[in-house]
Amino acid sequence: MRTLELESITKRFGTVLANDAISLRVERGEVLGIVGENGAGKSTLMSILFGVHGPDSGRIRIDGEPVVLDSPSAAIAHGLGMVFQHFQLFPGMSVVENVVYGAEPGRFGLLRRRDATGEVARLSAEYGLDVPADASIDDLPVGVLQRIEILKALYRGAELLILDEPTGVLTPQEARALLRVLRTLAEQGRAVILISHKLDEIIESTDRVLVLRDGAEVFTASTAETSAAELAGYMTGRTIDLHPRRAAHPSGDAVLRVEHVSTAERDRGALHDVSLTVRAGEIVGIAAVAGNGQETLAGVVAGHRALERGSVTLADVDITGLDNADRRAHGLAHIPEDRHRDGVAGDGDIVTSLVAGFHRRAPISVRGILRPRAMRAHAEGLIRRFGIKVADPARAVRTLSGGNIQKLVVARELAHAAPLLLAEQPTRGVDLGAIEFIYDRLDEYRDGGGAVLLISSELSELLTLSDRIVVLCRGSVVAELPVAEADAERLGLLMSGAVAELERVGG
């Protein structure tokens, strides 16, 4: 494959114009970046390119010849490979078995394991992927799993690789290593399309960049001739401060104490003698590679995970044995990681989701009877304050975009004015403008004396919002440092276990 061209690709889903006459060209040896806010049309465009959806109009050409990509199999046959944001790997199987699955070398239905292992090892060495062919998937860190996904595409002969947010769960060191691999692939004659919301990453690792907004192309340029700030402006239509820093101020008394907590060893992400404190008027961030205990810690604080040892205290009350409802009654607000599963009832109406937790209080409830007018007034107040895009508050939550559902959950939880906010991935799936807005609201909560335990996979978010950062590795606290002493490089090394360091501050 020498060139891939998309000409005036248009796609509608009902009344929604997802792609509006988008054209792009990518050549061998080139890394093309594609950026845009949620709903800008990136995923639809890549789904069309990989044969998941067909365009309503427009053409796709490879080396000047029109092609029909009506299935992923057809796309693969034409030399395209897709590396999805969420790994498509089989647990309990080896690297080789995952790479060759569905395209196994063999005869009479039998896998020629030696041939498969040799080919996987050859490709791994040729492209600097450093993947252990015989290892079990279950034993490998996420950075290696991402490289295995690339290896799967290369094994199937991919000449153009499409990567959707490939560094989202990687440490900075792992991300840099992956981006070096992409550059190597380009230098060896392949083409790469990189979709990422990390604009600094796009600037550093691509040759050209395309910006989509509201389904249309609004800007394209050589990456060397633009900047992250300019890209953000085209994405949102306004000026965005990409790296705001919040002023630190003195914190108050301890609101949350997690003391010597351990969970069952058999559990993934088990905790081992974890202690930390969150004080009034501060945000404490948790930095960890996925699966290293941050999800378990959130469950322990929320009351969803049982302890083998240790205790949890909220506002001087031992809540170790209390369930989630009782913890909320004692002052816990919670923005859950999975908004759809734990944050809202998708088939319920928007008003009901926004008044959840307030439904036993006046003026929403009087003598145990809900007052619809008061419920609607409460919901509409939050909708205005948080800029939630709602056609009608009586409609089902599932009719909202993912970003607006996230804003709904954030609005409801901050409205409780509880002494402690457990915030898991508070800006996941929202636009740059909404991220800026949520950061401001979290700052207001902190400045008003609230304590925030912030769990985020985005190091930039932790560095922007936190007063202190606690680093977890393999379920243990390996460092605790003020944000003034933290940077992405240092945090990445601590998260990966490459630096054996234990720093305690603040207590």
Describe the protein's architecture and organization.
- The chain is an alpha/beta fold.
- Helix content is 33%, strand content 25%.
- The chain is built from 17 helices and 24 strands.
- Strands 6-9-10-3-11-12 form a 6-stranded mixed beta sheet, sandwiched between helices. Strands 18-21-22-15-23-24 form a 6-stranded mixed beta sheet, with helices on both faces.
- Strand 11 and strand 12 form a beta hairpin.
- Helix 7 packs across helix 8, helix 13 packs across helix 14 and helix 14 runs parallel beside helix 15.
- The longest helix is centred in the middle third of the chain and has 16 residues.
- 43% of the residues are buried.
- The C terminus is likely disordered.
- It holds the Pfam family ABC_tran.
- Keywords: ATP-binding, Nucleotide-binding, Repeat, Transport.
- InterPro entries: AAA+_ATPase, ABC_carbohydrate_import_ATPase, ABC_transporter-like_ATP-bd, ABC_transporter-like_CS, P-loop_NTPase.
Keywords:
507 residues, alpha/beta, six-stranded mixed beta sheet, ATP-binding, repeat
Low-pLDDT segments, ≥5 res:
502-507
Average pLDDT = 89
Strand content: 25-35%
**Shape estimate:** globular
* Helix segment tally: 17
Rg of Cα set: 24 Å
**How many β strands by DSSP?**
24
Largest sheet: 6 strands, mixed
By helix and strand content, what is the structural category? Answer: alpha/beta
How far the N terminus sits from the C terminus, by CA atoms, comes to 58 Å
Order of strands in the sheet with most strands: 6-9-10-3-11-12
Helix percent reads 25-40%
Keywords: ATP-binding, Nucleotide-binding, Repeat, Transport
InterPro entries: AAA+_ATPase (IPR003593), ABC_carbohydrate_import_ATPase (IPR050107), ABC_transporter-like_ATP-bd (IPR003439), ABC_transporter-like_CS (IPR017871), P-loop_NTPase (IPR027417)
Pfam families: ABC_tran
Domain ABC transporter: 4-239, 256-499
